[in-house]
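From the pipeline queue, job 12 of 40. The input is one protein chain; the requested action is below.

Action: predict structure.
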Amino acid sequence: MTLPGPLPRDPRPHRRVRNSVRAGLVWSVVASGINLAIWLFSSAIGIDFLVWPQGASEPPAGVGPLAIVGASLVAGLFGGIVTGIFAKVVKHAVRWVIIGGAILTATSLFGPWEQPAEVFTSTRVALTLMHLVTGGLVTFGLARGIWSDDRAVLT
């Protein structure tokens, strides 16, 4: 009679939350750079970045470079923290990160398109492009980071 071998190790406990946070921040910095380039190009061709953050009853506010960088970094930090905690609990975390990132990116597109009629379509398109860049790059970076962690532990 042979004794059964040890059970295979579960790779999930070896993930560190800080790895996901680092991946989220790195990719959000890349997204910030691309978004700033979009903002500079859009501003150079005359697109006005006035939006109504609280609705039409409040005065308009301009979207500037600090707001763009700040929003991108917050998205990467928040995504990294949530992904790091989530990936320690769930199997097939890459799949869920991609699904969650796609849903959150699609949901964030309501921001530019729910603005009052006074906001130009060109402004909405530029802001939509920035949302897609941030959501796509942060989701890609977080999924890639988890995929790399899984492959490093399994090999």
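Job complete. The mean pLDDT is 86.
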